[in-house]
Amino acid sequence: MKDSVGRRLVRWSLLGVALAGLAAAVAGQARRAHVQALPEGPAGSLGSIAPPRFSAATRAYAKFAELVDHAIGWHSLPRYLGALILAGIRTTLRRTNLHDTWNIPLVGLNSPVPTDARYLTARTTDGTFNDLDMPLMGAANTRFGRNVPLEATALEEEHAILTPNPRTVSRELMTRETFIPAATLNLLAAAWLQFMVHDWLSHGQNEKENPWELPVGSDDPWPSRQMRILRTRRDPSRPAGDPGPPSFINVATHWWDASQLYGSDAETQAKVRSGREGKLTVGEDGLLPLDPETGIEITGVSGNWWVGLELMHTLFSLEHNAICDRLRAEYPTWSDQELFDRARLVNAALLAKIHTVEWTTAILGHPALQIGLRANWWGLATERVYRLFGRLSKSELISGIPGSDPDHFGVPYSLTEEFVAVYRMHPLLPDEVSFRSLRDDSDIGTRTFVDVAFRHAREALEKVTAENALYTMGTSHPGAITLHNFPKAMQQLTEPDGTLNDIAATDILRMRERGVPRYNAFRKLLHKPPVRTFEELCANPVWAEQIRRVYDDDIDRVDLMVGLFAETPPPGFGFSDTAFRIFILMASRRLNSDRFFTTDYTPEVYTPAGMDWINRNGFASVLLRHFPNLRNALRGVENPFAPWSTVMGGLAQPRQRPEFVSAEQVFKVPTASRMKPSATRP
Question: Which of 328, 405, 466, 556 is the most buried (most CB within 10 A)?
Fold first, then answer.
């Protein structure tokens, strides 16, 4: 039997390789032949986009890849074949899971008019003019798109939206009894993700009128018998009374443009800039200035602030200024504006590169992904070939997406509500941080999450220093993205304005009120089979029974977030394969659609010095440029988002995810997030 399966796998694999090559060739020819004028776009007078380009061979290979994935699973294949099957899966998602919300009726939007020609070679503050044929595409204050058909986003009745009670889901399925670590990552990986999310998206201020009201049981420690959760802000571009599917506005730019540092509006950007030599304002102590009213740092986005975010914002504000110094040395006559514009381009591209080839390969440790994600940036020709010869081809398959031709796949670019949903990964955050000294690994104090959040973040950083905080986070684990691992501090969190929130309950409710399908419906819409039983959903029998009870034995009512946290991920993965389907689609789309990662990813726009900076740097070099004393901790560490060495020479020992240990063991996992020193280095 094994021999038969092996021979069949080999035959399928060889056929797949042949089809992949044919698809690439035909698609390339079709792209070269595509010269007709762009048709009228879905937004009418607001612009137009090119139609999708999927050749017959590309579609045939995608169908083949789907069959292989359903029969064997892409993650069960040898790594190169697994990567090829993932390429086919992504094609299917590009064809069927990009849905346009510009077609929903809108009012009050007009195409912007440029005031000068700067937009041609620089990112605008609000993200306009990235696409020259549709200037509002991806701009701040435009709609989120969807990854599922609009008819699948129709809202349930309000009673159904509140069933089961999100607070019940939070308490019974999310509550962290003991800390379950993600042993292959360090805590900087958690801070980085939030840092990136703040670049990509924000729904803005919630509505204060007519909040959601959740009943609270008598045994619940919540201070009142009713929990109020504010509703998501309504789409101001929808005509009053329009009955169509729900739509929501992203108040941040949708682009990968580092708006978390620079802001998405002129007023914010003016606050963060120094006005000299293109630089951002950083104090003589190397830290960002504080807003005297809030006690929180002045930066592009300062919401949901904690010490991890402060470190990331500080680090890459310093990096922006270092890039300015390099550019000024090369081009001494440049103005403050020219230096700022080029440095922002370079800094944003470096962030995108780090996320693509370092953060993502750390959290998705499967061998096929190590190939596929690096190929997103450098192509199958590899980084070494790129460094020696540059791009060999315009093909993203051969030489990577940066520098290739742009492609919206027939749908105006935007981030999506489903993308927002799958990136709700709060279990990564700890309930406390045990700070250690970089000098000798000694204990310099433990603080709860509340004591390193909001205005307390700066207090903590001044007490322990930035380099000790970085060392601590590099040698501490985040939480695993799983059930029963939501930070307790975030289930009863007091915001700076005094509002009391349960973030887990809010996460559940946000997906429901925004029309994100529940777990099984979501899987089907992403071309994955639905789960039939609670035991199939969750390998931990105790948790499976808890889910059954909360959802009244109805597997199709299980919320998306619950299903994603319950699902057993592929080997090496930090999150579920279902969530990964959105990731594999949208991670490359952020690059494919962006003019500054495609058409204008050139030395003429970035400068030769800027391109060299991007090519030569990664997260470790950024850390060491600004905090050189971290060198010993980073010595021998292949990926800076993986556990660092302690100054005593130890690394963390791997632990199993709870799905793979007995139910009795699950609740005996050690609570400490701190890595224990090892006698030898691996």
Answer: 466
Reduce the secondary structure of 602-663 to three states and give it as a string: CHHHHCHHHHHHHHHCCHHHHHHHHCHHHHHHHCCCCCCCCCCCCCCCCCCCCCCCHHHCCH
Phi/psi for 30 (5° steps) reads -65, -40
- In this prediction, residue 150 carries a pLDDT of 97
Helix ranges, 475-618 (H): 503-513, 519-525, 534-537, 541-550, 560-566, 577-592, 603-606, 608-616
CB atoms within 10 A of CB 552: 9
Alpha-carbon span 263 to 126, nearest angstrom = 8
Catalytic-role residue among 423, 519, 601, 606: 423
CB burial readout 221-237, b (16+ within 10 A) else e = ebeeeebebbebeebeb
Separation CA 258–CA 269 (nearest Å): 12
* Dihedral, 383, 389, 394, 398 alpha carbons, nearest 10: -40
Closest CA to 516 of 126, 134, 120, 203: 203
153-178: b (≥16 Cβ within 10 Å) or e:
beeeeeeeebebbbbbbbbbbbebee
pTM for the full predicted model:
0.90
Q: How far apart are CA 469 and CA 570, in angstroms?
A: 32
For 636, half-sphere exposure in the C-beta direction (CA atoms, 13 angstrom radius) is 13
Distance CA 220, CA 653 (A): 37
The list of the chain residues with pLDDT below 70 reads 1-45, 649-682
The reply to whether 551 belongs to the active site is: no
Give, to the nearest 10 degrees, the angle between helix 307-330 and helix 187-200.
Answer: 70
Q: At CA 243, angle to CA 157 and CA 559, rounded to 5?
A: 35
Q: 3-state DSSP call for residue 428? A: helix
Q: Is 511 helix (H, G, I), strand (E, B) or coil?
A: helix
User: Which helix (H) or strand (E) covers residue 85, if one does?
Assistant: helix 79-96
Q: Which two tokens stand for residue 222?
A: 């919540």
Which tens digits make up the pLDDT trace of 536-585?
999 999 999 999 999 999 999 999 999 999 999 999 999 999 999 999 99
Q: Please give the single-letter amino acid code of residue 225.
A: R
Q: 435, 472 in Cβ contact below 8 A?
A: yes
